[in-house]
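Working notes for the structural subgroup meeting. M.R. asked for a predicted model of this chain before we commit to crystallization trials. I am recording the input and output together here so anyone reviewing the notebook later can reproduce the run.

Input as submitted:
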Amino acid sequence: MRVFAFLGDRYHDHDLFLETLKDVLNGQIHDLNPEDFSEIEKLPDLVVIGRWNLLDETIPWVSEKETKLLEEYIKTGGKLFVWHSGLSRFPESYNRLVGGRFIHHPPQKKVKYYGKNVEFELIDEHYFVELYSDVEIFLWSESEDGVSIAGWTRRFHEGKILALTPAHGEGLKDETFRNFLRNTLSSFMTQAS
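Returned structure, recorded in token form:
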């Protein structure tokens, strides 16, 4: 399986995200810089975006042009995994494509994640998100700050999108989380589009 991944940013440890992804996928992962975005035209099996949309404090790396490339990739059967900060600070067209966007998170604390046949807790950034239509929710999150949606899928023409809000920092090392991520990605990759 060929995986093209854009990981890590100012607040999210690139190496930890990459190591987690390698552990759960056991695949050939091409760790790309934002400048390599056009590489998705080579039609990998999976594109992973696990970084926010800023190269520095003001310059975005995904604009309308890159969103169009993603749309074309997914339309023809491509699979996109939007992970944690991959929901943050993107243009509206990207948010609508993936089915939702990050709103805010309080300081890290214990967050319970739950869905059908799954429940685990992490010290995590409890992401609160806003969803658009046409998504299938499969994971929720809860902390002392409230309840939010933590995972969904969306079909887009011949392809599909997976979005997950966990995890940040030490939560990425948690074996229960890694098993959940491994199973979720395996199911996502094998389901018919």
